[in-house]
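Narrative of accomplishments. A recurring question from our advisory board has been how the design workflow behaves on a single, concrete structure rather than in aggregate. To address it, we present the structure tokens for one chain from the evaluation set, followed by the sequence designed for it. No filtering or post-editing was applied between the two.
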């Protein structure tokens, strides 16, 4: 699925895209969050992942922003966290 929308900055676009994908995943649990991408206008070849995507010990996928500090976290209120924690 492709959703087009306008924003002022890339940060605003990323935040809005994450909201759309998370909302869709609530309505349709079969939607895989880890495959969501963000691209500029018609620049499909520059699509960036919206989520980290690291795979956890039980097969869950990290739904934090790419290159985030600290633990990875799975989707949901009680989602599993894993990893080395805060590197600082």
């Amino acid at each position: 699925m492709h959703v087009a929308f306008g924003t002022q900055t890339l940060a605003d676009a990323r935040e809005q895209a994450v909201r759309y994908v998370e909302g869709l995943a609530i309505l349709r649990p079969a939607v895989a969050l880890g495959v969501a991408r963000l691209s500029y206008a018609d620049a499909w070849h520059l699509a960036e992942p919206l989520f980290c995507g690291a795979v956890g010990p039980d097969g869950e996928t990290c739904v934090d922003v790419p290159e985030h500090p600290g633990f990875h976290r799975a989707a949901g209120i009680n989602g599993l966290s894993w990893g080395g924690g805060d590197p600082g």
